[in-house]
Amino acid sequence: MNTYKRHLYFYSSLLLFIFSMYGIVLANHLIILYFFWELTSVASFLLIAFTNHRNASFEGALKSFIITVVGGSIMLIGFIILGALYGTFQIDEILDAAHSDETLMLVALVFILFGAFTKSAQFPFHIWLPDAMEAPTPVSALLHSATMVKAGIYLLIKLMPLYYGYHSLSTVIMAVGITTMLMGSFVAITKHDLKGVLAYSTISQLGMMMTLIGVLTLNSIYVDEHVRTIGFTALIFLIVSHACYKATLFMGTGVIDLHMKTRDLRKLSGLRHTLPITFITMTISALAMAGVPFFSGYIAKEMFITTLYELKQEHILLMTLLILAVIGSIGTFIYSFILIIRPFFGPIATQSIELKTKWITLGQIILSICTLGLFFVPNVLRDITENIALHEIHPIKVWHGFNGPLFLTLFIFTMGAVILYHRYYTKLYGLFEMYNINLLYEGSGKVLKRISRYVIKRVMQGNLSTYVIYFLIFILIFTLPFTLSLLKLKATVDFTAPIYIYIISFIMMTSAMNILFVKNRMAAVVLVGVVGYGVSIFFMHLHAPDLALTQLVIETITTVLFLACFYYLPNLKKDMTPLPFKAMKHVIALGMSLFVGLLMIKSDSMNVFPTIADYYNDSYKLTGAKNIVNSILGDFRAFDTLLEGVVIMIVGLGIYTILKKGRVDERK
Fold it and tell me: For residues 24 and 604, what is the distance between their CA atoms, to the nearest angstrom?
């Protein structure tokens, strides 16, 4: 990392990401889990965009952020539905409770699936992961091999009991998983960038994990408990072993990049002589990924094939799943050996650069030992997880005798070796370039950008009254269901008042209506003042002298200041607004008045909260005043009113000065 600058930024973002991943794993609350879920997207964006002076780095960070955050937002809807269905957001309580509304439950699970697919780079949302390889090597080794991309896998494992019995969802999970596995396998073969090969190999391995989750959630008609136990063990073993060998491959790629200043496989060869330790560690990891015996990946791949082989094969879809898994495994075998053959064998192509540090391969060595150790003592993983796993962990054995899964494995090795020997895989080069889903992403981005520009140009007109109209229309639409329910309200308004209240009400309504027709600003200010003073008289009638006094003071100050300022302004011009626009403003005004009036009537007859009047009966003991309202006014409201008046006076004097003095020529 000595070649990079901004170490504080890098390590802070890396620690933020690790903290976020711990939050996802440890959270027992759906909303808290979602918070950390999105925090990983933020940290990932910061890390991928570390070299933000490069356009590819920034674009890759933006793409990963958009796709994962959109998926996470849709997942949040599923979480909210789950919380509403079960009356809690506690994950353990939800898992222990019985299923409720089947339709809503299905909708919630579909939304959660969407979030998991985007985070774990499942087809067709996988396009963010290859572009994220612009991040520094430690980021790729941590985020994109062992942690972030497995967040979706982890979430589905955690919520797996909720998916039991939904055959359609299990089918979707298996279909997406096997498609991702196949696509990742074959596209990885076509890449010439070492990180590109590793990116698509990660996508392929994630597809394998997703396929296992789909199988595990199948109905017991298709999979018995013994096979389910084998499948769950295969899934856990694959997650751990993949983290070991894939992180090693990423770090080895970083070492090659530092020494050779390139990751292009067309320019690399003979590195086994130049980088012997990296050659050994990457060979161990690549063989493990290929599923070769004596490496941890062999056990994971063997149990994966065994799980699919042991399913009730009378169902044509399950038979197809096994065939596709074998084909995808052949692709895995091929790209794993490509990672060994192309950069490390053959003549030395370029001269390497000697690095000062001698410890850069230490991480690779440790993880390679783990990859080997998991093969020889695989049940250590079972001993660790047996008390916390959702299912029983099956005892792991390396040798199961001559059986169907073994012959399928031998078939995979044979076909892969033949294709490698004859270099048939080179015919795939360039095949997937014309079918790039990135084109759909980029095209969608351009279309959305054009739409947003058009909408903004139409909506943002720089007119304050227009923005107020938008705001009021939104309120009317948003509250329309509530307003319609209020129209059915059967409420009796018992209001008796002396004759002068009716007279003042008539004067206030007349003044408000006349404001629409007067041309003189001074007259408009006076009419507004009449309405305000009328409100203060209402307060006095309702035995609220504090409010009446406040209203009188504020109304007097504002009226005087407005009169002083508006004296220098010209008269109002005739309103030349088109008739349809006027009609719309009248409709909005009537709608708002109807909503507010009905709301006042409804609130008068509602008792939502218990009264706190009894608490105020003890006001003398609490505040030293026999009237709690007087105490509040004396202690707080007086200062509030005083400062309100001061603020209004300052603003009014400023406006008055500007209007009287006129524009100041700044050039003088």
Answer: 46
133 is written with which tokens? Answer: 């390889």
Q: What residues does 90 pair with on adjacent strands? A: 29
Closest CA to 117 of 210, 31, 204: 210
Output 111 or 223, whichever has higher pLDDT: 111
User: How many other CB atoms are there within 10 angstroms of residue 634's CB atom?
Assistant: 14
Q: Nearest 5°: phi and psi at 312?
A: -65, 100
- What residues contact residue 643 under an 8 Å CB cut-off, 6+ apart? none
- At residue 77 the predicted structure's pLDDT band, cuts being 50, 70 and 90, is very high
Give the tokens for residue 177.
Answer: 């998983």
Is residue 174 within 8 A of residue 50, CB to CB? The reply is no
**In sequence order, which residues have a C-beta less than 8 Å from that of residue 421 and are 6 or more positions away?**
none
Spatial separation of the C-alpha atoms in residues 371 and 299, rounded to whole Å: 11
Contacts of 115 (CB under 8 A, 6+ apart): 37, 71, 72, 74, 75, 76, 78, 152, 155
3-state secondary structure at position 371:
helix
- SS in 3 state form for 443-455? HHHHHHHHHHHHH
d(CA 375, CA 284) in angstroms, rounded, equals 12
Q: Are 296 and 288 in contact (CB under 8 A)?
A: yes
| Residue 337 φ/ψ region, left for φ over 0, alpha for ψ in the -120 to 50 degree band, beta for the rest | alpha
* Other Cβ atoms closer than 10 A to 160: 17
d(CA 25, CA 194): 31
Average pLDDT, rounded, for the chain: 83
Integer angstrom CA distances of residue 555 from 536, 538, 547: 9, 14, 12
Q: Residue 206's closest CA among 229, 189, 183? A: 183
